Amino acid sequence: MSSVVENILPKNWKEKRLGDICKTITKGTTPTTLGFSFVENGINFLKIENIKNDSIDKKSIHKFINSEAHLALKRSQLIEGDILFSIAGTIGSVAKVNSNVLPANTNQALAIIRGYEDFLRFEYLHLFLKNISKNVSKKHARGGALKNISLTDIKNTLIKYPPHQEQKRIVAKINSLFAKIDKAIALTEESLKQAENLLPAVLKQVFENLINEKVPLSEFCSDSKKDMVGGPFGSNLKATEYVDSGYPIIRLQNVDRFGFIQKNIKYVTYDKAEFLRSHSYQKGDIVLTKLGDPLGKCCVVNSIYGIDRGVISSDIVRIRIDETRNFKDYLVAGINSSLIKKQLIANTQGTTRPRVTLKVLRQVTLPRPGYKQQVEIAKKINFINSISLKTQSKLKDQLKYLKNLKSSILSKAFSGEL
Fold it and tell me: How far apart are CA 103 and CA 373, in angstroms?
């Protein structure tokens, strides 16, 4: 079939405003405005958060509206085949109403769209709205924190459509292609999950099966009081003291397992860095987190934008090991293993933001084989980590491609190219 070029429609296609071709374009309401109170067990009342992955998540629906309110709120009553389009907050969420959620009403953040059977198949309209949702939001969204679009914006949106039989063919073709893509996405996501789980599984196997004597982390240092230190009290390093350049501050968001995240770096002045000298780090030190979930994320820090030293924040611990007896990468791998994680979880404080103390971190234990064996173990783990990261990167690119492929198919379908 010929494509739409310079607004020239394919043969037998038409173009009209949604407001001219759809029977109803309205929006829901809030039952409380009419004096009705919500009830625990009643009729489904749909909100934006009930739309997930272009469909209605029945499990998340609250039955808040009673039968009296349902009958009175005629404007917001839903029927099978209605299409919901969010017009406030997260604009452009689209879902088709099926019989399994009825009877139901919806609130004012969702537009209700009904199509004329003589002109438009509901399935075609549903897919069309999915295709234009991002553009409608980008073009018409207004407001501050809570973005919104008007019903007029939707009514004035142009839709290109062929005769019924061709609409049916296009919908069948899209559904067939989407089913194949969804299968490929599921397989890719499963492969990604396996790639992400590979390193933790290897770490668990290695460190929980080592028969060497376990020693406290503090014994990997020459002088644990000087070489294994925590960050300053919050009052000694406030956000108001951050500057645009100077000496870097290592914060929670900069530390990941096996890798330093060099983003959103904050700085302190030379004088402040000198004042916090006892909470400093230098290139090559080990840093780990003692707050958050998961606890104990650990990596080696190198130069940050060419600067070889700085300070750590209150929720970071810096470790400087005795490298004549211990191999740095071995210790990093051990700290990132489930063996250490279990010990940290057993000694956490707090519920909403779990944390461990520096004292606990100094006392958690790790097997300490000879230096040569430490090197061999670390090399093996680093190799597996490298392979895992490369695999994850490829799979994430593949997922992105597959998800973008859906948008490409929709775009072609509604231009007469499918």
Answer: 67
Q: How far apart are CA 287 and CA 263, in angstroms?
A: 16
Residue located via tokens 């194949």: 180
pLDDT digits (tens, 9 = 90+) for 297-341: 999 999 999 999 999 999 999 999 999 999 999 999 999 999 999
Pairing of strands 43-46, 104-106: parallel
Neighbours of 269 (CB within 10 A): 14
Q: How far apart are CA 202 and CA 216, in angstroms?
A: 22
Distance CA 172, CA 281 (A): 61
DSSP 8-state code for residue 30: -
DSSP single-letter state for residue 417: -
| Signed CA dihedral, 387, 389, 391, 393: sign only | negative
Tens digit of pLDDT for each residue in 90-121?
A: 888 888 888 888 888 888 888 898 877 777 78
Helices (H) and strands (E) in the chain, counts: 11, 23
pTM above 0.85, yes or no: no
Q: What span, in angstroms and rounded, lies between the C-alpha atoms of 71 and 274?
A: 72
Residue 290 identity: K
State the Cα angle at 343 between 338 and 347, rounded to 5°: 140
Nearest to 1 by CA among 410, 418, 412, 408: 418
Q: Nearest Cα to 326, choosing from 399, 378, 250?
A: 378
CB 1 within 8 A of CB 415: no
Q: Give the pairing type, strands 316-319 and 228-230.
A: antiparallel
Task: Identify whether the C-beta of residue 81 lies closer than 8 Å to the C-beta of residue 120.
Answer: no
Mean pLDDT along residues 158-166: 89
pLDDT band per the 50, 70, 90 thresholds, residue 2 = very low
- Compute the distance between CA of residue 177 and CA of residue 184 in angstroms, rounded to an integer: 11
Query: Other C-beta atoms within 10 Å of 176: how many?
Result: 10
